[in-house]
Amino acid sequence: MEQNITIHDIAKKLGISSSTVSRALNNNSRISDKTKKRVLELAEELGYKPNAAATALRMKRTKTIGLIIPKINRHFFADAINGVEKYATTHGYNVIITQSNENEEQEKSCIETLLHAGVDGIIASIALVKNDYQHYRKIIKREIPLVFFDRICDEIESNKVIVDDFKGGFLAAEHLISQGCKKIAHIAGPQHLNLYINRTQGFLKALRKHNMEPYEGGMLENYLTIEEGKEAAIKLLDTPNRPDGIFASNDTVCLSLIEHAEKKGISIPNDLAIIGFSNEPYAKLISPSLSTIEQRGYDVGFKATELLIRNIEYPSNNLETIVLPINLIIRKSSNKEV
Questions:
Q1: What is the pLDDT averaged over residues 264-293?
Q2: Three-state secondary structure call for residue 95
Q3: Residue 309 and residue 229 share a domain
Q4: Fewest beta carbons within 10 Å, which of 113, 220, 243, 269?
Q5: Record's superkingdom (predicted)?
């Protein structure tokens, strides 16, 4: 019969107390990173599994957290799920995953489902549609810990984890300027969402730094789909005075731009340099390969879960906004030196 490994077995092997092992497994700030590492490595080696039922009974918790994502088939959110599950399962929590499908009513249904399940906390990235977010206020009123990630809501007081979208927009514009672009357009995401506002503001800051104005008529706002990308491509490229550089707020729109440019006989990057945002898996595979701003969904999901579980186990009124770094990835679509 398989032997159940306990925290006492781990403590005995490491020569430390059982309470220290327990605190290390729960990421207690009183325990050093070195000790946490030793405990976690041995726990994994021995196949230790927390007794969820006993813990829940003792702590009056379900050891379950809820996750609300807009679309499960987006690479960023799929990566975020992996980060959430990695941190959660390592710390004895289960994850219930729900999907809003960019729909406000479905988002409300997700919240009701998670509240009915008695989750200990919720991690959420809001839908693209503009709404009043009253359904999220219900979570706060019930004093259930809430962490927003990526697409956050400033109207709700909660912990948040984002990437440095402002710097991403800034670096994208500066790169196009470095390639000699003089007429730079920007395809922005919905400007009621914090992340797209920041990407746009970073873009504009870089232009101001170099005493440049945005390309006339080249500040477009849409929902960044393939279809709306095609419409933007027509508006920007079917004109004699077209831009020579475009920064799009996601990689999806860039697919439409590249396709339409090829139809028009516009050389990329010589006539038109393009850079996106996200670093989707296809970005390095298409021709020309796509320059982009990389954001790591796994890291965002992992950090959001760490923040949530810490707030579940050690409640605090001190709210945090964690900003994770981004990377500029230069490929053929914008690099005129290639």
A1: 97
A2: strand
A3: no
A4: 113
A5: Bacteria
